[in-house]
Amino acid sequence: MRLYIVSMEKALRSLIDWYDRAGVEVPDLPLERSVRRVRPKPAAQPTPPPARKPKAPVFTANDPAPIAAACNTIAELKAALDSYDAGALSDGARQAVLARGNPDAPLMILGEAPGAQEDRDGLPFVGRSGQLLDRMLAAIGLGADESYIANVCFWRPPNNRKPDPAELELCRPFVARHIQLAKPKVLLLTGGVSMEVMTGVKGIMRNRGQWASVNVGGQDIPALPIYHPAFLLRQPELKAEAWQDLLSLREKLAEFAG
Length: 258
Ligand code: URA
What we know:
The protein is α/β, with parallel strands linked by helices. The chain is 43% helix and 12% strand.
């Protein structure tokens, strides 16, 4: 008899299971608890948070990228910088400093940022470090109209401090447009800040004298990082290394001559 009940229960249980799997609601039958195998309910899934709408990019009237892209000449770029609000950077400076020299020269030099005298005169590299830069260029036979000199930051930072990363990012679209408009064959990057902005590489002591390639608007331009002349004024013993770098620059320029 016991055997009969057990096999009845077995049959019933498998029938209930079959209905259950077929998705049929089976009412509670008066069976022993052990007969009815209750299927564990799937654990409640956490409700995913409602999908957020992607934020539209914020283009303020002050976004430098479209302003720079709209400049079709160096004169237009200068006018755009003159009226550009770069916040604390332009508030603390007398004027935007763009460039000096020959915009058609094959060599474009990029320094860090204007200093006090550059801020007064509105021209880059006209102070003591600029005078050394001119002597360095003259030493490899380059006259005043054989290079085009600019910076990666267009305003003198308050108290002559280094431009901070946000300020450099703000200047970046203008720097890129400046290079696109001047179309240099070779870039000379004076100092670690200029090197980092243009190549993404840090460490001027390790990387000076190593040619890099900088892509601007789809154009690859050979770029040579060298010590900043202001640094050479403080560390004149490094001038021998700077001289090697200048010779390397002269060789590269010779490839584009004629
Ligand atoms: N140092 C720079 O990097 N740029 C200047 O214009 C002057 C000093």
